[in-house]
Amino acid sequence: MRRLAVLALALVALTALAAPPAAAQEGAATVSAASADVLAHLERTRGLFLASIDGLTAAQWSWKPAPDRWSVAECAEHITRSESFIRELARKSMSEPLPAEKLALAHGKSAQVLAMIVDRSQKAQAPEPLNPMKSGEMRSYAEILRDFNFERGRTAELAAASGDLEAFATPHFVFQELDLAGWIYFLSGHSERHTLQIEEVKATAGFPQG
Q1: Architecture of the domain made up of 35-202
Q2: Helix or strand (DSSP H, E) at 171
Q3: CA 200 to CA 132: how far, in whole Å?
Q4: What pairs with residue 170 in β-bridges?
Q5: Which helix (H) or strand (E) element contains residue 151?
Q6: What is the model's pLDDT at position 4?
Q7: In 10 A of CB 32, how many CB atoms?
Q8: pLDDT-derived band of residue 161, with 50, 70 and 90 as boundaries?
Q9: How far is 123 from 164, CA to CA, in rounded Å?
Q10: Least confident piece of the model among 92-96, 125-129, 138-142, 203-207
Q11: Is the dihedral of CA 176, 111, 193, 151 positive or negative?
């Protein structure tokens, strides 16, 4: 009986050492709650993009509606390249703190960001490093699948690990001061914008049927 009592005490001590303090557990729950909507949006747009390119033949992958328009492969290339590019712009918000008065101006823009970025009636020219037509690089479906999932995973890690997504902000080229939540919504919405472009390509007359 004495040995059992000693063992029980040892297990209690180990459990106490292993378990984080109550405050830490509460903090983790707060982080999760603060990031839940952003993470859900990232997962939704990931699913939309991967569904849009799933099962395409080689002819469908590379077909272009016109010489000056992107193929599905080029849209997918742009989405994948832009993931890390935009994420690193967002990460800058964590290394260059804004004054409190500017930080206050960065909040509450997420709905505006999402509405703007998915509006395909507003056209924009991709910067040259992110324009697959300029670089001539086109990866295969398997390479895009691998690289996009890797990059989206890193974006989700940033969203989950950053705690209060409104505690950080950095200037955006359209929205001025923008908090980290807004930046990640911009990234997620950007992939949705070009997923819509992929669907437009697939719906164009002349798109290969197999």
Answers
A1: Up-down Bundle (1.20)
A2: strand 169-172
A3: 18
A4: 178
A5: helix 141-161
A6: 29
A7: 11
A8: confident
A9: 33
A10: 125-129
A11: positive
